[in-house]
Predict the structure.
Amino acid sequence: MSEIANTPEPPYYAVIFTSERSDGDNGYGEMAEEMVRLAAAQPGFLGVESAREGVGITVSYWESLEAIHNWKQNERHMIAQQKGMSEWYLRYKTRVCKVERDYGFGRG
Amino acid sequence: MSEIANTPEPPYYAVIFTSERSDGDNGYGEMAEEMVRLAAAQPGFLGVESAREGVGITVSYWESLEAIHNWKQNERHMIAQQKGMSEWYLRYKTRVCKVERDYGFGRG
């Protein structure tokens, strides 16, 4: 289960990936887990948050645009992106953002 | 149920709100629906995406930082923010971002 990512002081970068799945698993669950493991091992990775309820929203956080670019070019990730279009998603949107400001709240 | 937001060409702004709920509804569901309606009526609102699965992620999209600021100062929204801290959330993080680039995929 996802938690709130423990990111450093801004500025840093966020990739918002919003998707609608097609029916059936077709290897999606296994690949999704592998992608989270692989992303977390990339240079410049800061954290990830994810939830699906009808639509799926995954936000990954990165130190730089270069780190995002390198992750997009990762060989296993490129295979996953291809399978995403051919099998797992009906549609998706990816937004690359600069986080300019953040604030939070927590009890206890 | 949330859908992928139909946003214009970048640049525009995103507010990523990631939260962990406390137990019980305590008026949360009703207020959450009101906030979505109210936000959608604000000047500069572009769209919203939302999912909860353990963690909740709501991303709202805006034309400008001024539009985000005005929404944060909305009277009903300020009451909701207060109740969020006192009742509905164990913790949350809000990130204000500039969307620099986006791309997508859709079938048919």
The first strand of chain B starts at residue 12 and ends at 21. The mean pLDDT of chain B is 96. The beta strands of chain B are 12-21, 45-53, 55-62, 89-106.
